[in-house]
Amino acid sequence: MKKYLFLIPVLMCFFSCKKTTETLNIVSINDLYPIAVGKTFFYRLDSTVTASFGASLVTKKYLAKDSIESTFLDASGRKSFRIFRYLRDTLATQPWTFTATYYSTITNEKIEYNDNNLRFITLVNPVSYNTSWKGNAYINTVLPSPYYFLDNWDYHYSSIDDSFTCLKGNLQNTYTVTQQDTQTPSVFDSNVYNEKSYGIEVYAKGVGLIYKDFIHYIWQPTPLPARFQDDSWGIRLNLIDYK
Prior knowledge:
There is one protein chain. The protein is mostly beta strands. It has one domain. It contains 2 helices and 13 strands. Strands 1, 2, 3, 4, 5, 6, 7, 8, 9, 10, 11, 12 and 13 form a 13-stranded antiparallel sheet that branches. Strand 4 and strand 5 form a beta hairpin. The chain is globular and about 55 Å long. The chain starts with a helix and ends with a strand.
């Protein structure tokens, strides 16, 4: 009997310690987006746009630098960060040129990213496979809005605590948010109407955004000439380094 009585505290310690360890391993959005003034991220940026008369899609390539410039309180009194983006050629022969300002707002429940007055909910708690949310809920998607194609997107965590290879290298503890993945037909066919909307973002614990891929296009075969609509575009960010 004494033998079994000895095992009871040992087992209690085992399960208690295991539970504590699992609790400590819980990741929050603050771990995936540890933003702070002074941080700088360097990306390869590929911008996809329509060619002349919409005959094709072309990709323009740049180096991008995102600098966290300052903090401020938004209209609701929430802490926000001002982000400056600079671009230069991929060979780095030209100086950095300022191109845009973005804003991130951090709360206990979510992270919002303001891009050209479009407010996206990019991350939410809890970070779990069971978590999904309407990431474009603050965007006017009612026609004739040019952002109609962003309507009713269901964001969700599709990969948790995996490795991911970007230009920086193979990073561990990464988390993928799938925003949308639709294509009609499933393989591009220039003879029929085509539409595609695809968006994912990948975050690394303790780093932040390491990869982003977004593309939306509509191909109209009629009336001739066949063409991509003017609102077809895409952007890809691939982390090179950060400091």
